[in-house]
């Protein structure tokens, strides 16, 4: 399962865990919850109710959800990874520009997207997204993107020149912009993955990382359908103000 994100990025499912002795998706969550009573997974006709209780009770019985999880491979701009790495409950292994040349792949949004986001920021007073406080025009956005594309080419030329001169890869990379794509694997438990999605699917999160969180939600729906249903229903209720 591989989902395209932005212009050159993706989220790819690698593996999951949490099937337990029953060898069924999410059964490991139930088995972990029943460990204290020496119980076992009884089938979803019975245990769907227990899963709902574990997820929805206040306070939540969250630790059983640590007995399931997943590994993803992600290609994203470096600035997205900087946000993602703030979630220290995940394990990361990123491609290293010390040992291999960086791929010549950079992120450029569309002019239409920039105009839309600029107008929204100017209207709502979003301090993170706002620039001068005015909305950018289509022509201005296109001109800015053309300059950015030119800068990307200059950065790449300088980087490649350094490599050809014999500058060590770990030093030649110092001029690389945060719009350059990188690639990593991330692993975490289902409990911590849902915490990540809670924050990064929020409308106030930066648009780019929301697109990756949305792709992660698709993976979650496929691999953990019952837990995802509980999580997503709760999220939609909160967004609706219920």
Short characterization:
This protein has helices at 27-33, 44-56, 78-84, 111-124, 138-165, 169-172, 190-200, 207-223, 225-239; strands at 2-5, 9-17, 69-77, 91-94, 181-189.
How would you describe what is shown here?
With 242 residues, this protein is of the alpha+beta class. It has helices at residues 27-33, 44-56, 78-84, 111-124, 138-165, 169-172, 190-200, 207-223, 225-239, and strands at residues 2-5, 9-17, 69-77, 91-94, 181-189. A 5-stranded antiparallel beta sheet has the order 1-2-3-5-4. Strand 1 and strand 2 form a beta hairpin.
How does the SSE layout of this entry go?
Elements: E1 2-5, E2 9-17, H1 27-33, H2 44-56, E3 69-77, H3 78-84, E4 91-94, H4 111-124, H5 138-165, H6 169-172, E5 181-189, H7 190-200, H8 207-223, H9 225-239
Antiparallel strand pairs: 1-2, 2-3, 3-5, 4-5
Q: What is the SS-derived class? A: alpha+beta
Largest sheet: 5 strands, antiparallel
Uncertain stretches of 5 or more adjacent residues: none
Tell me, what's the shape?
flat
Q: Could you estimate the helical fraction of the residues in percent? A: 40-55%
| Cα-atom radius of gyration | 22 Å
Terminal-residue CA separation: 33 Å
Rounded mean pLDDT is: 91
Q: What is the element string, with H for helices and E for strands?
A: EEHHEHEHHHEHHH
Strand content: 5-15%
Q: Spatial order of the strands in the main sheet?
A: 1-2-3-5-4
- How many DSSP-defined strands? 5
Number of helices: 9
List keywords for this structure.
242 residues, alpha+beta, five-stranded antiparallel β-sheet, 48% helix
